[in-house]
Design a protein that fits this description.
The protein is mainly α and about 120 residues long. It has a domain of about 80 residues. About 80% of the residues lie in helices and about 0% in strands. The protein has 5 helices and no strands. The termini are far apart. Keywords: Membrane, Transmembrane, Transmembrane helix.
Length: about 120
């Protein structure tokens, strides 16, 4: 009878840990998607060709970024930095944090249970 409270407390702690990690991973995914959207809007402003939303999913962002970066003019450089480069750097940083987090041991278990995949 004395072990029931200990078992319940440990179970609650494990469930809270799983919920906190899942919430953190979802938050990182949302931040990645928001920054990708901001970057794609910026790329559309600087690109002559039309860029579809499907290209976000195909992981062609770095190619598009390099192509647009080569084609911009000197007077557009500041606007390019604000609208495209900063969100691009944020996306890269968040993706590496997300992938590093789901590769660590206790977090990888939660990611596998909740269906989180690496980017």
């Amino acid at each position: 009878m004395g072990f029931i409270p200990v078992i319940l407390t440990m179970s609650a702690a494990i469930i809270l840990f799983i919920m906190a990690v899942n919430n953190s991973l979802k938050s990182k995914k949302i931040q990645i998607q928001d920054n990708q959207f901001k970057m794609m809007e910026g790329l559309r402003a600087f690109s002559q060709s039309s860029i579809s939303n499907e290209e976000i999913k195909q992981d062609r962002i770095s190619k598009l970024y390099q192509n647009v970066k080569k084609s911009i003019q000197e007077d557009q450089l500041d606007a390019f930095d604000k609208k495209v480069r900063k969100p691009y750097q944020q996306v890269k940083l968040l993706k590496s944090e997300y992938n590093r987090l789901i590769s660590k041991k206790p977090y990888s278990f939660v990611a596998k249970i909740m269906g989180h995949k690496p980017y």
